Amino acid sequence: MYYQYIVAIMKTARPLHLEIQTHRSNPVGLIRSSYRDPDTQAVKHTQHGRITGVSLDQLKLIQAAFQGEVVPKDDPGAFKCTNSKEYGASYAVLEMARQLDLDTLLYSRNEPWVRDCLAMIVGRVVYAGSKLALSNQWKNSALWELCGVKGDVDVEDHCYQPMDRLLERQKAIQRALAKKHLRNGQVVLYDITSSYFEGDYEQSDIVLFGYNRDGKRGHEQVVLGLLCDERGCPVGIELFAGKTQDAQTVIDKIQELRQEYGLSEVTFVGDRGMITQANAQKLENVQGLHTISALTHGQMFDLLERKVIQLELFDEKKIAEVTDPQKPRQRYCLCRNPDTQARETATRQRLLALTRQGLDKLVKRKKKSAPDKLGSQVGRLLQKYKMGKFIQWEVKAGRLEYQLKEEHITQEQLFDGCYIISSTVTASQMKSTEVVETYKSLAFVEQAFRTLKTVALEIRPVYHKKDDRIRSHVFLCMLAYYVYWHMKQRLHPLFEKDGKGKNREWTMENVIEHLRGIRQQQVSVAGTEFEQISQPTEQQQQILDLLGIKL
């Protein structure tokens, strides 16, 4: 406290000194500057301030500082730095959360559970890991102290119980986020992913087996649905049972946008296959609703068979637009990607080769097999590689016979790299190029999932066993991503000027690591102790400036 005051005074033109007066009951330090009167040549003094409430030893130390001898020359050991804690990253992320009004969004009153939740949200960005590990960080980090928790942190009192309160507030918080970021007529992005679990969850209603989008077979899972604005800023997340399919979540999510968030007009952008025929029929007469999605291969083949589209319309450079006479409100934007084309062709050839290799082993068996047993083995093999539609097979006299459906393979290959964006947005509202670009903005949601599920925020492994705690944990991770996303936006100039390839330096993880280098430490000088925050380096200060954070 006194150090900053003294530094400010020492910037005056005249040299300063500290005069210590001990004739009173408590010593007083008078900060003075001396000068010689030009007329009388007498030495006069100007007083700039007083220091009271400190001991005589402390005043002598301050006096030594004015004389340029903070550490006595004959005792270098009199200067010590102890109890060093991480400060910069926790402080910066916490200030960022407060600048975004996240503290008041959690709850209007500054109650202890709100501060605990802020600590967990910030801790998810800075440390990730389990709640128990975070509660023990009070020994190594200033995070909990910055959030108003002094001393020991108990995981039950400061993590689990606040998580229960947070879950009660989830709908209200998401309504506030939607009000802040969503407007009538705006594009809303929606996608789902899965997160797998390990261990026993027999009592859970949501951790179930289902289609795993990460290819983690043999693991139970939950399904996450994330809503974002058109820039990818998250506004809401919902947890579904692990067996939930993409299309099952769409109707309720659109109703949520209209009823919970009050959006009478919205353009809903969902991933491939979300707007099924059944969903389209349910949404057909909803006023103010427009949809943008992509067709599955089955839907594309249906259009081809009904001659609504022709393969010649797919072009790498130009987007062709067609309409379906049976659905005049529906617009189809036909596109082709040559990179995707090469990848899809290679993938099919590889999977067909693996399928044939497995079938050939069954064909070459010396012993005959029971038809039901052999058929079951063939079914598992075709299910594994998803190539059943290209194989014609039968079991005769205990022997397997099969052949490739070359015509089907050729026809499928013609569609490689082709995709169709389907939309009910009128041409006057969006051109075909805008429709396609809007659909591609779903990449923002995919990026959010990568950040949530990988080392940045680590939504998994999930250490909670109760369904409500799992829901609260997922919501905490989304709120952490909300802060993370805004930090990344402000740091865009840093990433934009970064190098490429091996010359690349900056990632969000590297930014956090740089900020961790700003330490809070206990300094002892000749027996006088005080807390000191380390001076930011040039790079650390650049990050803080871009974030709009002052230490």
Strand order of the largest sheet: 7-6-5-8-9-14-11-10
Mean pLDDT: 89
Summarize the amount of helix as a percent range.
40-55%
- The gross shape turns out to be elongated
Fraction in beta strands: 15-25%
Radius of gyration (Å):
33 Å
Whole-Å distance between the termini?
14 Å
Number of helices: 21
Task: List the uncertain runs.
Answer: 8-13
Structural class: alpha+beta
The major β-sheet equals: 8 strands, mixed
Q: Would you count the extended β strands for me?
A: 16
Polypeptide structure, described:
- The protein has helices at residues 2-10, 56-66, 88-99, 102-106, 112-126, 131-135, 143-146, 155-168, 170-181, 250-260, 277-283, 297-305, 338-363, 371-385, 406-414, 432-440, 443-453, 467-490, 492-496, 508-516, 538-547; strands spanning 16-21, 28-36, 43-51, 79-86, 187-196, 221-229, 234-241, 266-270, 289-294, 320-324, 327-336, 391-396, 399-404, 418-423, 519-525, 528-533.
- It has 551 residues and is α+β, with helices and mostly antiparallel strands.
- Among the domains are: 2-70, no CATH class; 181-331 and 422-464; 339-414.
- The strands form 4 sheets. An 8-stranded mixed sheet has the order 7-6-5-8-9-14-11-10, sandwiched between helices. The chain has a 3-stranded antiparallel sheet with strand order 1-2-3.
- A hairpin with a 4-residue loop joins β6 and β7.
- α8 packs across α18.
- It is elongated, with a radius of gyration of 33 Å.
Features:
alpha+beta, 21 helices, 551 residues, 3-stranded antiparallel β-sheet, 8-stranded mixed β-sheet
Q: What's a quick, concise take on this entry?
A:
With 551 residues, this protein is an alpha+beta fold. It has helices at residues 2-10, 56-66, 88-99, 102-106, 112-126, 131-135, 143-146, 155-168, 170-181, 250-260, 277-283, 297-305, 338-363, 371-385, 406-414, 432-440, 443-453, 467-490, 492-496, 508-516, 538-547, and strands at 16-21, 28-36, 43-51, 79-86, 187-196, 221-229, 234-241, 266-270, 289-294, 320-324, 327-336, 391-396, 399-404, 418-423, 519-525, 528-533. Among the domains are: 2-70, no CATH class; 181-331 and 422-464; 339-414.
